[in-house]
Design brief:
Elements lengths: L2 H22 L2 H17 L6 H23 L27 H20 L2 H11 L4 H8 L3 H27 L1
Length: 175
């Protein structure tokens, strides 16, 4: 494999997996979907300019695969009360670094943020996550296949919904 492609996969792959996890909340499925997207891109690399457009193409493919997975999946009921996994937005356990009250507050805030993001519709969650990782509106629009204005509206609604969900917590902190 071309050395540049290998380096590109190693640097872009983890970001794509993180993005997929934020959309579907299942690490193993997210990894599979990203692998499928990468394989498809690499299989057809002669059609694309991966150096210029590879990351955008990968995130577009991951977005589409996640959408397909969400619309096609059947609900699964777990018999285990505790899944043992951590959500991507849960804060690390830093009990040794701060006092117990600060640790508890950080954990509660992390859980609140995660619930707020899970409550967002998938298109809003997509644009919110891409924006939070530094993507510009035109790039997000191309990646998710929407017009720029629609991306701006989705991003505004997502930010407003997250702010509304965090408002009670932040009001308590102010007092």
């Amino acid at each position: 494999m071309n050395e540049w492609i290998e380096q590109w996969v190693l640097t872009t792959g983890p970001r794509a997996v993180s993005y997929a996890i934020s959309l579907i909340r299942n690490r193993s499925v997210a990894e599979d979907l990203v692998q499928d997207a990468l394989c498809a891109l690499l299989r057809h690399r002669d059609r694309y300019d991966l150096e210029r457009d590879g990351t955008k193409l990968l995130f577009t493919a991951v977005t589409n695969k996640c959408r397909n997975w969400v619309t096609r999946r059947r609900p699964v009921v777990s018999l285990d009360a505790d899944t043992g996994g951590q959500g991507p937005w849960e804060l690390e356990d830093r009990r040794g670094d701060c006092d117990p009250l600060e640790s508890l507050a950080a954990t509660e805030l992390g859980e609140l943020v995660e619930r707020a993001l899970e409550a967002l519709p998938l298109p809003q969650r997509e644009v919110f996550h891409l924006s939070a990782t530094g993507w510009e509106i035109p790039d997000i629009a191309r990646s998710v296949g929407l017009k720029r204005n629609h991306v701006r509206v989705l991003l505004h609604r997502a930010r407003r919904a997250v702010a509304r969900a965090l408002e009670p917590y932040l009001d308590e902190v102010k007092e």
